[in-house]
Amino acid sequence: MASTSTIKLLSNRSSIFFPNNPTFSNPKRILPRFFHLPTQSTSIPLHLLSQLDRFCSLFKSKRYAAAKSLLTHLATSDHPLSTSLASAFEASCRAASISYPTALDMLFRVYADAGLTHPALETFEILLQRFGRVEDRSCTVYLQALRRSGRINDAHQFLIRMLDSDAVDVSAYSMAIVVDGLCKNGVLETARKLVDDMFLRGLAPNVMSYNPMIEIYAKKGDFSLMYQVLKVMDERGVEANVATYTILVDAFGEIGDANKAEKVFEEMSTKGFLGDIYLYTSLINANCRAGNIKRAFALFDQCFEKGLEPNDHTYGALINGLCKHGQVLAAEIMMHEMQSKGIDINQIVFNTMIDGYCRKAMIDKALTLKAIMEKKGIQLDVYTYNTLACGLCKSNNIKEAKSLLHVMVQQGIVPNTVTCTTLIDILCKEGDMVEAKRLFREMVNNGADPTVVTYNVMIDGYVKKGSITEAERLQREMEKKGMLVDVYTYTSLIHGHCVGGKLDVAVKYFAEMKQRNVQANVVTYTALISGLSKKGKSDEAFKLYDEMLKAGINPDDSVYSSLVSSFHNTKEMRGSTPSLEADGGRSSGHPLSSQVRVPIANRTSQKAFPICPQSVRNSLLPFSFLVALSTEGSSTSSLYVCSMAYLPTRSFRLLEFPSRGSSFTSQLCALVD
């Protein structure tokens, strides 16, 4: 056993290192298995003495790698070792005339490399006690071992001990290891305090200590604090490196600000730094996210010009950008090029392509990729299954989607919120609101909080079942939870009230959207225009149509059909129908009207105007007119529907349709049944 004085000394030193850790406060619990300080002699197996002699021989002949390998075997082997091996180790070193402190330092690193942090700490304490000096590189290895084992707080305490001791020349790299670990653990304030403390001690941290803080602040979206760190770097004369610029490009790319990412790249180039493939990949990704696909490919070409070999992440960024912007066939070409260069397609790229195919309703190709993934032994994750299930739902393959999700569960993959939302959507489409509600409540009870999308799916399901009261109850529940009601929520409720005949409530919801700055989409306008048209509110319907165009939203055929049918339902149409010839073919207000004469011709709408949408031709009322106007030499024209109905403000209405490609001269044809 070790002497009382030695135990006391080690206990005091260990407490200084780890004051709050009971494991380290008792050195008896952390002594190495074969590195003890014995007070009595014990027999040592001959084969161990032989191995120690072999170690000394290798060490003396400067075959350090082989010596370290043998020492690692001795330190980590499972056979029992004598407590007197420490004295034998020292005796062997003395007999071979090799430096015992240097050999002991190697043992310290061996323990640290092997993850044996307890005996490593004991060895460090003995080095400090016996020789008063420890190599920084060995301490760095120990810090790395502590970090690998997730004990970053212990690493922090050890670094402070190193800083407080004159026995270790602490390097900037040792500092960076701890700072990076603290940042990754989310204790940024502690990391910043440590860096400031080191600077005040005169131990200037290098860029590797600042980069982790910049990266974490950037990922959190806290650009104010990120810029603060950059300012401190500049004030302290710490120059950014390529890794710093890559972090900044990544940060701006994540928020879709490709312009700022490009400025960072330009600044880096001006300072003479040569970007590596990681920086180029980040910049390509930033441009892809912003929709600058052409610029992304220009950067991709620069990689080859500069001798940089694109990797799977580079191709993945381009493929993701192409898929997100609907260019899935171009993404397919990039995937084949990736394969031709011997770069394996990873799970992320496969998932990206599957998502791209599903977005374009190319579900068969998506399923083919799924089969290839399985054949290659690539694990399908919850994202793969969710994407395919959503794609199948959108293509109305409800049964296949449900079956796929069941397979996912059977494979042991835990469903997430997206999975549950997709399954709820399937149940709603099947009209099974009872089961959908059960699953929805089960999510809440199990802590898998439904998202806005989940609520919208349920609201839409209730609306389609005619249960508008339940839909509105869920809307109130959303708002109570602090969720923001979006355009899809409002559109479902507006549609439900329009179908239910409560047009006034639908209009109130539409007004509420505007008050909350929720931008209506084409479905919102279509639902409300349809509701107004059915009620014969032609003026209001046309006002919404004009508003829709001003908002830059392109109407679809449903809007045109609704507007045309509004003439049927307008109460004013019950009056007399005057002759247009008597009016000279002029309306009371539209600037185009005076340019048009009204020849009466007995032609069918389909024959006279093939550019008119079929749905509109089918809904044209008797004695309506189609007017095609174009400029000579132009390849486009505008198509108008004119009603003969007598209205207080004008003789007929004008409704514009986009041309389908033919060139027309000014003409007006009467359409009769």
List the helices and strands and how they pair.
Elements: H1 4-17, H2 22-25, H3 46-60, H4 64-76, H5 85-95, H6 100-113, H7 117-131, H8 136-148, H9 152-164, H10 172-184, H11 188-200, H12 207-219, H13 223-235, H14 242-254, H15 258-270, H16 277-289, H17 293-305, H18 312-324, H19 328-340, H20 347-359, H21 363-376, H22 382-394, H23 398-410, H24 417-429, H25 433-445, H26 452-464, H27 468-480, H28 487-499, H29 503-515, H30 522-534, H31 538-550, H32 557-569, H33 605-608, H34 614-619, E1 624-629, E2 638-643, E3 656-658, E4 667-671
Antiparallel strand pairs: 1-2, 1-4, 2-3
Helix pairs in contact: 3-4, 3-5, 4-6, 6-7, 6-8, 7-8, 8-9, 8-10, 9-10, 10-11, 10-12, 11-12, 12-13, 12-14, 14-15, 14-16, 15-16, 16-17, 16-18, 17-18, 18-19, 18-20, 19-20, 20-21, 20-22, 21-22, 22-23, 22-24, 23-24, 24-25, 24-26, 25-26, 26-27, 26-28, 27-28, 28-29, 28-30, 29-30, 30-31, 30-32, ...
Low-confidence stretches: 1-42, 79-84, 571-673
Question: What can be said about the biggest beta sheet?
Answer: 4 strands, antiparallel
Mean pLDDT over the residues: 77
Give the structural class: mainly alpha
- With strands numbered from the N-terminus, the spatial order across the biggest sheet is 3-2-1-4
Pfam families: PPR, PPR_1, PPR_2
Region (Disordered): 571-593
GO biological process, one term: RNA processing
GO molecular function: mRNA binding
Task: Give short descriptive properties of this protein.
Serine Threonine Protein Phosphatase 5, Tetratricopeptide repeat; single chain; 63% helix; 673 residues; disordered C terminus; mRNA binding; four-stranded antiparallel sheet; 34 helices
